Amino acid sequence: MLQQLNTYLEALKIQRWDDHRYYHHSRINQSLHFISACFFIASYAILFTDPALAGLLAWGISMTTRQSGHFFFEPRDYDHVNHATHDHKEDIKIGYNLRRKVVLMSIWAVSPLVLFLSPSLFGLIEPAVGLNGYLHDVGLAWLYIGIGGLLFRTIHLFFIKDVMTGLVWMFKIATDPFHDFMLYRKSPLALLKGELIDPMDHVNAQGDEITSEQETEAKTLP
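Above: the chain's sequence. Below: its structure in token form.
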């Protein structure tokens, strides 16, 4: 049992490390993740008392800031820190890469329109009354989309990787707001000082200490 727990924690450590060193070089992206983490934590705090508002906060603010950092500010050229191309990192990403995120974010963006055109969601729910009722339904829809996206990729990982990888990834995603809050809390200050790209000195320093199967597959310079 203890050995299984240690294996789980080590896998979690590796997934978090790979996520940081591969996909969070931009200080703008890091700062947006810090903002996102703050609102995600707030949405967690009200999840069981006002799930609709939690869904609105989580998607309306947290996910938009978080994903805009990846889509618009994270460098996509050759990653000299990790010796990997952007395309290669997209291919080996355990979670949602940019292609998968486009699908997920498209579902999120279309859902309010669907509820506007069919307040009863084609007879599945009680039609909303007024703007507050509409926003309430949108918030719940976004919450279900988030949970669905998490479960879908987790189960998908069960088949294409293994159960351990899927469970570790699910826990990582659920706890990312707390981890990102601590990891990127100083990024806004670095950004204000004019540092657009994290030099990632800590990655170079720890690269020999933390390894993964992804690293052994990474493309290197000749």
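Residues 27-74+94-194 form one domain.
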